[in-house]
Design goal:
Layout: H1 12-20, E1 32-33, H2 45-52, H3 68-82, E2 92-95, H4 98-109, E3 118-123, H5 127-135, E4 139-146, E5 152-153, H6 160-165, E6 166-172, H7 184-197, E7 200-204, H8 220-226, E8 235-240, H9 241-245, E9 253-257, H10 259-272, H11 278-288, H12 292-313, E10 326-330, H13 339-350, E11 352-353, E12 355-356, E13 373-377, H14 382-400
Parallel strand pairs: 1-11, 3-4, 3-6, 6-7, 7-8
Antiparallel strand pairs: 2-9, 4-5, 8-9, 10-13, 12-13
Length: about 400
Amino acid sequence: MNPLLSTLQPYPFERLRQLFAGVTPPASLPHISLGMGEPRHPTPAFIQEAMTANLGGLANYPATAGDIRLRQACADWMGRRYGVQLDAATQVLPVNGSREALFSFAQTVIDPTRAGATVICPNPFYQIYEGATLLAGATPYYAASEAGRNFAVNWDAVPDGVWAQTQLIFVCSPGNPTGAVMPLDEWKKLFELSDRYGFVIASDECYSEIYFRDDAPLGGLEAAKQLGRSDFRNLVAFTSLSKRSNVPGLRSGFVAGDAQLLKSFLLYRTYHGGAMSPTVQMASIAAWGDEAHVEDNRRMYREKFAAVTPLLADVMDVRLPDASFYLWAGVPAQLGMSDTEFARALFAEQHVTVLPGSYLARDAQGHNPGAGRVRMALVAETAECVDAARRIVQFIHSHSN
């Protein structure tokens, strides 16, 4: 067996199952899960129709590079959304969801034969970053997000010696679990560091279309263009239809950016077997070409967060995020509970699931930046999320007396 498999840590939801083992929640209360970030709004009918209308594609082997019509649809969307111009043939590549692409991209980029091969991850983070790093034979370095800076990563705290060994950095903006969006000055800092040390930037942007301000979140390629880096050197952006279009089961997204990096990524994927079904490609073309359903989806999230956030803000350290569908809430100090104790007791007493923040981060530089917080995914219908929030308020009041 590959010995690197033993370096992987249990996935957060496996740890959550272990945490809840032996707990019997009240049967009188229906279970409400705010734990998993799985979109639950209905899949738009026109996407389903586009898929069923193209079932003939199941009879064909797909090309790894994808249909040029899909690549052009992705490039056109990037132009409308971010104002960047891309060559669909060389700067865009369809992928089977951003999760698969983030993992396989690390296997393409990392050279484990170089001494001290390092990958920088935000902390807390999406665990695929860590798993991809470890299985590529590199060492993760965890750069902490700071509550006092709206959960922005403190890139200045990364030592020069770490930057010098870094081959790849994962950026997540809007962030999971914090919802923070990286501003232009931080992008400028990372680009300058990339130029100095030669590392690649993987920009995970799968939450980019769920936001609560008037201005849409800044994207990595958009930032590069604004800073005069229209060749997108050493930069690849990852995005997906899962959250944007409520099709997590479609497993469809794309990567875009540095043409030389994508040429190598395509070579890797040719052997890896990363081709997308022609049927899925046709449904994806339809999805990328329509914004009305995305606006409707965003409206539903805005209404939901407007109803839930004030309820929880009365009893927890929580505020409306910049973007994404998560609330990153602090466990009230007066309860005297850790984030894991809070999650277990809330499940036991109110039959509500939240994810402990410490499960989404690592102990690094002397602390776990996720400790004392919980992630709540507001993916259910508004009434269910409001019910969950009221139960959480009741739970906190009952333990504060």
